[in-house]
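Data availability (excerpt). The following record was deposited with the supplementary files.
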Amino acid sequence: MSAELQEPGPEGPERSPGSGGHSGASGSGQCPPLATPAPWSLPRWRAYVAAAVLCYINLLNYMNWFIIAGVLLDVQKFFGISDSSAGLLQTVFTGCLLLSAPVFGYLGDRHSRKATLSFGILLWSGAGLSSSFIPPQYSWLFFLSRGAVGIGAASYSTLAPTILADLFVRDQRTRVLAIFYIFIPVGSGLGYVLGSAVKALTGNWHWALRIMPCLEAVALILLLTLVPDPPRGAAEKQREVGALRSTWCEDVRYLGRNWSFVWSTLGVTAMAFVTGAVGFWAPKFLFEARVVHGLQPPCFQQPCDSKDSLIFGALTVVTGIIGVVLGAEASRRYKKVNPRAEPLICASSLLAAAVCLYLALILAPTTLLAAYVFLALGELLLSCNWAVVADILLSVVLPKCRGTAEALQITVGHVLGDASSPYLIGLISSVLRARRPDTYLQRFLSLQQSFLCCAFAVVLGGGCFLQVALHLEEDQAQAQQPGSGTPENKDAECQRLLPGTDASTEDS
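Predicted structure:
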């Protein structure tokens, strides 16, 4: 285990009691306290500036996730692709993201996180810009470019939360994570808005992909100049031990036995399945609902009406901000009286969201207003969980394994979640349409019925978070023990750091 440090970050240095003496190793396996090495510290204002920059980049990250969904009808017509192929477009994006996330998690736990994030921003920015110049006969190249954007996004989604975890601690971390994760729904909503608004202004959906690189160039400059790369575990006063690193397989075995991590990952997977499907298909579903109600003519040529993308984008932004703030604040207050507050809040919000999504889908053919209301409520309840599930992961996993933990959660969540759900919904819709008359009403009903599986997925997610509540306290206690080793190498590290051995001052 590593020695305790002075507490860095925005709260300022604070020397831990008893850190300057030595004592024998206890029977519980704890390492003897060692002389405190030089601490890592950061002024309060620098930590908050770094958090602001990371939030801005997170906004751009999620705008890239859903900017295509905001102009999906035009993309389909430009490249001549069906619903199932359009769903595959998002599947390629998230598939490449999930395949590269473990690589970035491994690199982030062992090398410079700033360098890795800079590479990711350059990759997704360049791929997005180049995709706007692809001619219609090369649709496969457009699919590949979306995959490259997904690889770049994986670096940020994996590593940015771990930097925040090393800058803030306790309630400050909860609040900062809440602000950080607000930009998931806000960025997603602005992706729809930017795509549809730029298309409406220019008459060409390609310009939406050409504006983003300008914003991303600013983000890269801010990252390089204003964001530090703190030692892993700095906020918890745990010393980063570089010479005695556990292997990636040891980290994975440790996470596989961490039941809070396992069940929360499955819960996040259910959330990702629903948000991926709804985020990709909801604008088209609402457009076709308006056609069925006689409020909108069908779209047979470009440019298609973008009103529903704008409405859905605005709903996503508003409900996302309210939901993330409500979830984080409820978690912060409730866990003062119940240590299992976080998974219980996630479970209850997901079960309520399932009811809202089901009612939104069932009522859409009858009353469009009720569909919008229940869809907005469902999005709000889903958004309550973004900051809370991140706080769960960071509290139950050892600091040195957080990059790998984020990567594995992203990978599993995307493999079984939003990498497959857009394609699955589109595939079911296409299969149902093939067996029915080719009318607009039947097209709408096929998409509606394919959406119903989302409500059942949310119920499963709620059950997973109930399981997290059973294991949370035990896993948090283990992760908060002073030290940075996984269970496999803690004893070896204690021996290595005992006073009088050659290695005891190696990392001082």
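Summary of structural features: Residues 259-292 form the longest helix (34 residues).
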